[in-house]
Design a protein that fits this description.
Strand content: 25-35%
Order of helices and strands: EEHEEEEHEHEHEEHEH
Number of domains: 2
Largest sheet: 6 strands, parallel
CATH architecture of the largest domain: 3-Layer(aba) Sandwich
Number of strands: 11
Helix content: 25-40%
CATH superfamily of the largest domain: SPOUT methyltransferase, trefoil knot domain
Structural class: alpha/beta
Oligomer: single chain
Number of helices: 6
CATH topology of the largest domain: Alpha/beta knot
Radius of gyration: 20 Å
CATH class of the largest domain: Alpha Beta
Shape: elongated
Amino acid sequence: MTLPVHLVAALDAAVGARVTVTGAEAHHAVTVRRLRVGEAVVLTDGAGRSAVGEVTGTSKGSFEVVVSAVRDQPAPVPTMVVVQALPKGDRGELAVEVLTEVGVAVVVPWAASRCVAVWKGERAAKSADKWRSTARESAKQARRTWFPTVSDLATTPDVAALVAGADLALVLHEEATTSLASLAVPAAGRVVVVVGPEGGLTDDEVTALTAAGAVPVRLGPEVLRTSTAGVAAVAALLSRTPRWS
């Protein structure tokens, strides 16, 4: 069984060093997960560095680890970016959770024209925080060393700019004639997958994204929910890259 992972914002540790973890991360580990002295854990900064060590002390608000190994891992390539139109209810957090588990590097919430959910004002900040918290916890559960980022809410012009800078950009569209399986996937660079809302993409959105360089593709004859279409597409793409070979 793989070791539990704990996030440490600044992990500048060498073998033999003692690292003290505090704050919410330590509170959850000690009081909820009941971390004990003698247990082995992995600490990570979420940006490629991880340290394995043994817990040598705990208190109500902290725990201490003596480092036995340190590893610096390069960011996985190709970089997977998913533009996720805002789903209704808690399906946004579901989308972020499964996208994190499958290895996406960036999730971009998108205010598409036909989104039922609307992020404005205080709600926008709270919703973005929920997505980021979900990504962080899911990354720990998935034992990731590189944690995903959740961008600020994007407009359609923002998404078009992302598409224009990608090495491969796809927009999932049930009426597309090109299958995702027919496309070559770059072994490196940035891949952007655009997932529309429950109500579907508008003609103007499809036009803007294709003009920026996106290829409309279909996954298959079934119509997936917006909260699960992205993970299906990313999994299909990663299965044809060195990351999953």
